[in-house]
Amino acid sequence: MAFPGTITVTSPDFDDRARLADRFTAEHENVAPIIEVSGVPHDAVELALICHDPDAPLPFGFTHWTVFGIPSDTTTVTADVGREGITSKNEAGYSGPLPPPGHGEHSYYFWVYALSRPVEGEPTREEFLRDYADAVIEQNRVVGQYSR
């Protein structure tokens, strides 16, 4: 995979490493935060977004959101700019944070990948990382925190 280069990932809804507001969690409004992207390399064909919690007590963590087919000139990523894929709940769409009570602070990595070729279908996070690692030109992330 590529290292961060010129691509920058931020959110108007939370600061990097700051607590996510309750409205973004599964026990409240369960709405996806807005993710902003800048500095996308000119040779990127499309973008992909994956929100992943590596702190979840599961072998591969928990994937909360996947969006594929995002046009490379997109600056604001929302659910309607691409194809939402499958989460770890085996459902399409955004699945907000819901860590086990008392499990401590979890980190939610909103990764954006600039790709040299389009993503076919709606792969899982693991399938995407396996099948498209060679297509990642650049990647970067913004991280939200949440605990119950």
TrEMBL record:
Pfam families: PBP (PF01161). CDD domains: PEBP_bact_arch. Gene3D superfamilies: PEBP-like (3.90.280.10). Belongs to the UPF0098 family. This is YbhB/YbcL family Raf kinase inhibitor-like protein.
